[in-house]
Structure formats: C-alpha cells, structure tokens
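Note to self: user wants both folds in one dump. Writing first protein now.
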Amino acid sequence: MSEKIREIYKEGPESDEEFDESEEFIEEDVEIFDEPEFSDADEYAFEEASDEDAEFEARMQRRRARVRGRKRRRKILGVILIIVLFATLATMCGKDIVRLKAENIALQKQQKELEEERDRLKQEVENSGNREYVQEQARKQFKLLNPGELLFTFEEE
C-alpha cells in the first residue's frame, strides 16, 4: 500500500480519551469509520500499489510454477532412473539365465556321450574274456595276423 493510503487510515483520534462509548460520539464521528475518500492522486497510488501487488503475485505464481515443474521433473527423473535400474538388473539376470541354460544343455549332451562311452567300455570289459573278441581287437589295433593270412591295406580317400 502506498504511504498516502496508510496516512489516511492512520488519521483519527490521537488518544484514547477522545473515544467515548456514548451515542453522541458515534453519531458525530461516523465519518471516521466510513470509507475514506480518495483523491485522484491517491487513486493513482492505489492503482500503482495494486499493480505492484499484481506483479508480485504474478512473479510468485511463476516461481511456484517453476518449483512445481522442478519437483515434477525430479520425480519423473527418479522414476525413470528406477526403471532403468530394474531394466539393467533384469537384463543382467536374463543374460545369466540364458548362459546357464545353454551351459546346462551342453553339460547334458556331454553327460549323454559319457554314459554311452561307459556302456561301450562295460561291454568291452565283459567281452575281454572271449577269445574271438581278443583276436578281433588284436587285428584292428595292432594289425596282427594268424599264420598263413595276408594283409591287404587300401588307401582311404
């Protein structure tokens, strides 16, 4: 508020002695409690003050809007960061899961091959006491021959 408006509101009885609760006093000094009259200069000052107040209020609203915008951006950024964090963790865990499944499949395949080899070796152990099997293995592995036999070898393509 401008200084002139403040002065107008301050005008009135200087001391408490002038205030009397009688009806006479109220009727005589009604003008004091009525709305003060403004001159053109006072009205201009009041408009200036209200313009300043309006400007101040507009600035405050813009500032509040900026603060709300910042808070909103921070919240959105926080949510995005959390989503990215979870996506990264899920991706890392997903890669591990895929790698472990592939490794599991390879190990199962290797286990199957080893079981087949074990069965073959068991069969060999069982046949090791058989004379025909021993002769067959001697011919294959050591290229041994019985007396009177001829060995023919062919080049493999």
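First done. Writing the second protein, which came from a different request thread.
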Amino acid sequence: MPVKQEEKGSFFGKGFFIVSVLGVLGLGVYYGYYKTQTPVVQKMPVVAVDVERVVLKDVYPKSSFVAKIEAQDKVGLRARVQGFLQERLFKEGDIVTKGQPLFVIEPVNFEATVREAEANVAKARAAVKNTKAQYERAQTLYKTKDVSESKLDTEEAAYTSAQASLGQAEAKLDLAKKDLEYTTITAPMDGKIGESVYSVGELIGPSSGVLAEVVAINPIDAVFSVSENEMLILQKNFKESSSIKVRFVTSDGVIYPQEGKIDFVDITLDEAMNTLKIKASFPNPDNKLISGQYGRVLLESQSPVREVVIPMKAVQQDMLGSYVYVVNAENRVEKQDVIRGAELEGFNVVITSGLKAGDIVVTEGFQKIAPQMLVNPVFSNKGE
C-alpha cells in the first residue's frame, strides 16, 4: 500500500532527531574520555643547588714522590797485601772517621822486607860514593895524562851503574814500606761500618773480596724518580721559584726535622722506565736516616703561583676521568671535564685544565641534577 505524504515526512523528521541526539551523546562520551585520559601538564619546580664561583688564588706548588735513602758514598774495604788477620779494631755498626785503623794484617814479614830493602839502599849508596870518588880521581889524572881515556870511560860507567842500582834499591824500599803500610787498613772516609766478613786469624789478601763496607751517612741522599709528565709539571710550578723547600717524610708519616736541597738531576730520561732520577741531600748528624730506608720527598715552592682552586667536593670521577658540573649563563647544568692538580689544605684542589676564573661550579646536590637541567644556583662564596 502506498504511504501517504504526511506519514513520509513525519518518518524522516523523527530519524533526524534521533541521529542528532546520538551525535550529541557521542561527543559527550568522547570529551569525557579525553578528559580522563589526557595527563595534566604541571610546571616542575626549579631545583636549588649550592655553587661557587671559580677564582684564582695564590698557591705554593707542592709535589710528593716516593724516595729511597741512599748513602752518597759506599766503599768496600779490601786487603792489598796477603797475610793473617791480626786485629779487628772496631765493632760492627760503629761510626768511624777518616784514617781510623780498622784491620791489621800480621806485619812481621813486611817489616823484615823493609829492613832488607833499607840495607840494600845503604849498600847501593856506598857503591855510589866509591865509584864517584874513583871517577873524579880518573878525571884529575886524565888531565895530567897519567891515565888513558879508556880508563876514564870505565870509571864513569861504573859510577853511572852504581847510581842506577841505588835507584832500584830505593824503589824496592818504597814498595816495601807501602806494603807494610797496607797491613793496616783504615777508614777511607767518615761514615758507618757494616758487618765484618772475616775473623781474626784468617788468611786474607787481594783475592779475598770485601772485608767490610763503610757508608757515608752525613750528608745522605734521598733518591726519587719522576715521570715525564711529572717533570713537566715541576718545570711549570718551580721555574719562577726563588727557592724550593725540600723535606723528607718517613714511612710512618713523621717529617724529618732537617731540610734538604736538590743536588743532582740526571741529564737524560731512563729509557726503560721513562723517568728522570733526582737526588736530594739531607744533613744526617744523628744517623736518623738509614741507607735503604723508604719514605717520601716533599717539594714546596717558596714563590706563589696564581692557580684555579675549587673545593675538592666539587670534583666528580668516572671511568673517563675527573669532571665538574658547571652552571652556564642560562642557569643550565653542563658537564665539564677537568684535570686535577695538587691537593691543598682545607679540602681544596688545583684545577690545571678545564676551568677558568668566573666559571660557576656545583658543590652540592649532584643527585638532583643532570646535564641541561635548569637549576637555581645558591652561591656559597662570600660576597655573591
């Protein structure tokens, strides 16, 4: 059956109304869902961190190196002649002085040799005296033609031979006296004598080796080595220094009371270790420093150097080295690699590279910051 016109219009009007209602409801549901699912963006508060402004300070450069005490001189005592050891005139470990008798080799045979050599010298001198008189008499007679020229030559040759024999006898006497002198072995220098290898009664001689050692103890050296990089730092820190204070610290941390001085710097680097040997000499009147002892040598310049100094707590460390956090002009954090220098009193440290005067470094609050993060710097420097 055909639909009437009035019913058709009414049908389409109701459909439009229903679609409109559904659209409004859909928009409402979507809007509600959007509101529940979209996060609310809130402005995060700016973190406050403690900072300090980098300044230059007068620093007296210091360096410390492991050192070993060594005697400036060490002499092994040896016998120059052979014989039985008759006396030992010291106690092991004694302090000895130059020329002090230490060992005596039985001298009887050497004294006899000296007496024999003296007798030969006397005999040779008598021969010289006699041949000289004969030669002078021949010269006088030759002038009066009472002796021939050949006789004069013979007397001259005898006189010359007697003089040569006297020279030989005197030389042998000198050697005999020297051998007798060598029977007493004396200290070659002031120092301390060590253990004696031989006992009284033993046969000793030039082939016996070292009888005992004498080491010089005053002054005494502290020997240390510096790497090539450390050498360059020393040259930088001490090149304008009017003087350098040199101290020695024993292994238990006690500072030796006597100051030393640098008295030797090697002229070449050791090729194997790439280090330079340096010696510092220290007075040692009480024998407190012993050869073979280990400790540290401290070098301190007496002239100040202007350096970048920051609190040690500002320096962080990772596998790549040392770094600090710097706050830039926009109050944002930046990571800055640095090279540390000497550590100073008051828990401060010298920065040799990476910072300049005026930079702002973070000193506390590292757990709250990250690179490029905006922060509120709170200065701990007085006057900021």
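Dump finished. Worth passing along: The domain at 49-58+306-379 is CATH 2.40.420.20 (conserved putative lor/sdh protein from methanococcus maripaludis s2 fold).
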